[in-house]
Design goal:
Layout lengths: L1 H19 L4 H14 L15 H19 L1 H8 L7 H16 L4 H20 L3 H15 L7 H14 L9 H22 L19 E5 L11 H7 L5 E7 L2 E4 L12 E5 L2 H11 L2 E3 L4 H5 L5 E8 L10 H4 L1 H5 L2 E7 L2 E3 L13 E7 H11 L1 E3 L14 H15 L5 H14 L5 H4 L5 H19 L2 H12 L5 H16 L4 H19 L4 H11 L10 H5 L1 H4 L6 H23 L5
């Protein structure tokens, strides 16, 4: 009993830290593992055994393959078909959500969303009217797509591996399809019929106007011969003025230099195009002797040239920008990139842009050299929302990656190779064929997920060894005492859904799987249906934005608040739970 209380306390503490979100989930998972090891709950020889687990290797391989498919332009090719969907809002809604769901069955949710969000924003200007009406259904569709195949989402891979450890045989790639595809179809139809009323109409980037009123704080400053800063560099000007501002262009007669370098020396008669708030502009004028020369159309005239672009991008859920500011990162000094504006939940954030600490889902308006912007987006884990030429990848190669991917699916489905071997080989083939460069191989593995899985798998074992999983299973059975087995299955499914909305869904699958096995054992029924319930429950975090990366990605572009998700997410969850139980019982009979 002592061990049960200890592992229970560790897991409850980890859940609290997950919800608090002060530290990233992989750090919390590793800390919980080390505490369990120190207390003797995890044997010394098994502390890091999770990192050699087949499920962890498979997840890493699938992430590499997903990035290669995304980089090669496979999803781009599908996305381009959306432009032929017509200009009717309901047709575009069906097309966007369907393609997103289909792609997410085979490619990572975030990779699919990174391609599809700009497509939705572009189409919204011609048909949807408000992108916020379709972005949330697209995010939910990407989660539904993950339920369709074993490789669609990490929880499915984990559940398949746990089944292999328990009965010696894994779930196959398409064993999840009957239940998952049925739920995806039900979920899509529900969203098509109800999203008009359940998804809020927000101030998102769907109309012609951006949420940033750039002309209100981009201003001309004329440099007279008497100005004190004639002959000094832009760097010296920036060092003198401590507040945030950016010189986005310089006019010299009829010549215009966009995004000038920091070593540029200011000349008499120059006109500096400056982005700054009113107080900072006054400080510049007082310190330099420059003169104000306002123009209402400056934003369109001077921000963009053939070499320089202004691009919107969303801060990804695992971006290196999170918790840091432009001043911390010295984006202007290191990369020559100007942060022109920041929007959060569809609303512009104006004061002191240099010191704003970025959050997941923030939308940034960046100006700089086109090639450098591409590198900055890739380096810092952001996704462009405009300029489709900025897709972070190389030339399109459609046939080779599709052939490699199909071969991996076929060999594993026919039992010629195990799933970990088939997909690891496919990831290697993607590198050897230069679909994904070697330098990007490790950059595009979602290492926090890998570390989280490696840390929580031994914790799941400790939950089982201590008897805590059995105790929790008995509690679950008490709730459904004297009721049909379907009630116990429903209780398990509901608890997993709740857990997946507040912690990473992979962790939810790891922690709930031992409880599912014990419930099935106590009832004397097959464990398959209970394991499938955990897989389904872990894949349905629709109620909160923190439930999954896809939900976070649309938060900024859609202009959603934290409380907007449950309006569609809760009814959708209830409908899917009601449908999932009979579907699981139909396709996975509980007779042992």
């Amino acid at each position: 009993m002592n061990d049960q209380l200890l592992i229970g306390g560790i897991l409850i503490g980890a859940l609290v830290l997950f919800v608090w979100d002060r530290w990233r989930y992989d750090l919390v998972g590793m800390f919980a593992l080390l505490v369990a090891a120190a207390l003797g709950l995890v044997p010394a020889q098994e502390v890091f055994s999770g990192f050699g687990n087949a499920a962890v290797i498979t997840v890493a391989a699938v992430l590499v393959i997903s990035h290669a498919m995304w980089r090669s332009g496979v999803v781009d090719a599908l996305a381009s078909l959306m432009k032929r969907a017509g200009d009717k809002a309901w047709v575009q809604m069906i097309a966007l959500t369907s393609v997103t769901t289909f792609c997410s069955a085979f490619i990572s949710n975030t990779g699919t969303m990174a391609i599809m969000i700009p497509v939705a924003l572009q189409l919204s200007r011609s048909g949807i009217g408000h992108a916020s009406r379709v972005l949330m259904p697209m995010a939910f569709g990407s989660l539904l797509g993950g339920t369709i195949t074993m490789i669609g989402t990490p929880p499915n891979i984990i559940i398949a591996d746990i089944r292999h450890e328990t009965i010696g045989e894994s779930f196959g790639i398409f064993d999840f399809t009957p239940v998952g595809l049925s739920l995806a179809a039900i979920g899509l139809v529900f969203m098509w019929l109800t999203s008009k009323w359940l998804v809020p109409k927000t101030k998102s980037r769907d109309a012609a106007n951006s949420p940033y009123d750039m002309s209100s704080y981009i201003t001309e400053l004329w440099v007279p011969e008497s100005a004190g800063f004639v002959g000094q560099t832009l760097y010296e000007l920036e060092s003198k003025i401590k507040e945030n501002f950016a010189v986005v262009a310089i006019k010299q007669g009829k010549s215009v230099t966009t995004a000038p370098p920091r070593y540029y020396r200011i000349k008499a008669e120059d006109v500096l195009i400056v982005e700054a708030d009113t107080d900072t502009l006054q400080q510049i004028i007082d310190a330099t002797g420059f003169e104000l020369n306002a123009d209402e159309e400056l934003a369109e005239r001077f921000l963009v040239s053939d070499e320089v672009q202004v691009v919107e991008g969303v801060v990804g859920p695992d971006s290196r920008l999170i918790g840091r500011s432009a001043a911390d990162l010295r984006l202007r000094h290191r990369f020559g990139v100007n942060v022109l504006a920041v929007a959060r939940q569809g609303q512009p954030v104006k004061p002191n842009l240099a010191n704003i600490r970025f959050k997941p889902g923030d939308v940034l308006l960046l100006q700089g050299d086109a090639e450098i912007l591409t590198d900055v987006f890739r380096r810092f884990g952001c996704f462009p929302l405009a300029q489709r030429s900025m897709r972070i990848g190389g030339e399109k190669k459609l046939f080779t990656p599709l052939a490699i991917f199909a071969a991996a699916i076929l060999t594993s489905a026919l039992g010629l190779l195990s799933v970990p071997v088939a997909f690891t080989a496919a990831a290697g083939a993607m590198v050897l064929s230069n679909i994904i460069p070697l330098r990007e191989l490790y950059e595009n593995v979602d290492w926090p997920i890998v570390v989280l899985l490696g840390a929580t798998i031994p914790l799941g074992g400790a939950l089982e060894r201590s008897g805590a999983a059995h105790t929790l299973a008995e509690w679950g059975l008490l709730i459904s005492n004297d009721a049909p087995v379907a009630v116990a299955l429903t209780v398990l499914l509901v608890v997993t859904v709740v857990l997946s909305n507040i912690v990473n869904n992979a962790a939810a699958a790891v922690l709930m799987a031992p409880i599912a096995l014990n419930m099935a054992s106590s009832l004397g029924v097959s464990a398959d249906g209970f394991l499938m319930a955990v897989a389904v429950g872990a894949a349905l975090p629709f109620i909160t934005p923190i439930g999954h990366q896809s939900n976070i990605l649309v938060m900024g572009p859609g202009g959603y608040a934290f409380g907007d998700y449950w309006k569609l997410g809760l009814p959708l969850t209830i409908v899917l739970i009601a449908a999932a139980v009979p579907l699981i019982l139909w396709f996975w009979p509980l007779a042992a």
